[in-house]
Amino acid sequence: MARVSFPWIRPLWQQLSEAALGGSLAHGIGIEYQPELGSEQLLEQLSRLLLCQKPVQDTKGIRACGQCKQCLLYKAGTHPDLLRIQPEPGKQLGVDAIRKVGAFAQQSAAQSGNKVVHVVHADSMTLAAANSLLKTLEEPPENTYLIVSAAQFSLLLPTVRSRLMMFPIPRPPLDTIAAWLTQLVPDATISDALVSYAQKRPLTALQLLKDGQALPQAMLDDVVFGSVQLPKDNEGIEQFVMSVIESLHLTLRDYSERNTYPTWAKAHVETNPSGFAQALSDCYQTGIVLRRELQGPGLNAQLLSQRWLHDCRRRLLLARETMAN
Ligand SMILES: [Zn+2]
């Protein structure tokens, strides 16, 4: 996807960039890992700014110049004073990787400017790795910035946390997200359900709109993980229910025709392949009934929909237990 801007992180960027330029930025920085909400872009902007020799400050704010030798090295992906450490997929971040951080911090900068280290998915560090990182955080060399990125800072050792200046990524309000989507895809019809989905996954929602697709099967993830926030008004709820029905339909189609299914369905599919298809079909049918009910007057749409979602969740995840009973 082409580069997009995330208006909701601007105030945070202003805070970080002013501190960086003014020399008051902590050497241990914690940035919440929320790539959908722009955390990777924030990390990149900050690293470029810290490495740049001639930062620009004008009405658009502070940023790296993009032209100095440091900026060119960064763009080429070969800046010798930038180190990125992250775990291999599905693995913990081990002490060997973190030792590289310590060694890097002790070296003098190859370009005689700042050095920047990213430790990504720091919440997956082993205890030994965390203790090793702590040593570097306790005595960070003058010109070294350690940017620690984690989805759940609560999983870090308190001693590590206390050495970091923490920056959570702000959650955009619904009207900000709606305006953002409208600006980027002006001709699209944007439902309330999509906006509420986009509040958590703006990039996925944006891509779907651009591709002209309906809400993704991924929407079922929210249903099975119980993290659905229903819209407040009845019309919004009805649209939302429609989207889940659509997702069920697409998931059933993919499962029947291509035998593909969401990750969370693995256990269910492996134990009872036809049971999973049945669960999808049952949820679809009860969803159609619910939708018809919602069009009638005087019903508690919120309650009925929550009940249906709860039931779907049970069927999709736990149909195995139900069968065993
Ligand atoms: Zn520059």
Description of the structure:
The protein has 325 residues and is an alpha/beta fold. It has 2 domains: 7-167, P-loop containing nucleotide triphosphate hydrolases (Rossmann fold, 3-Layer(aba) Sandwich); 214-324. It contains 14 helices and 7 strands. A 5-stranded parallel beta sheet has the order 4-5-6-1-7, with helices on both faces. The chain has a two-stranded antiparallel sheet with strand order 2-3. Strand 4, helix 4 (95-106) and strand 5 form a beta-alpha-beta unit. The structure holds zinc ion.
Keywords:
325 residues, alpha/beta, Rossmann fold, five-stranded parallel sheet, two-stranded antiparallel ribbon, 14 helices, elongated, disordered C terminus, binds zinc ion
Q: What is the level-2 CATH architecture name of the largest domain?
A: 3-Layer(aba) Sandwich
The secondary-structure element order is HEHEEHEHEHEHEHHHHHHHH
Strand content: 5-15%
Structural class: alpha/beta
Write down the CATH topology of the largest domain: Rossmann fold
Average pLDDT over all residues: 88
Instruction: Please give the domain count.
Output: 2
Could you state the oligomeric state of the chains shown?
single chain
Concise overview:
It catalyses: DNA(n) + a 2'-deoxyribonucleoside 5'-triphosphate = DNA(n+1) + diphosphate. The chain is an alpha/beta fold and 325 residues long.
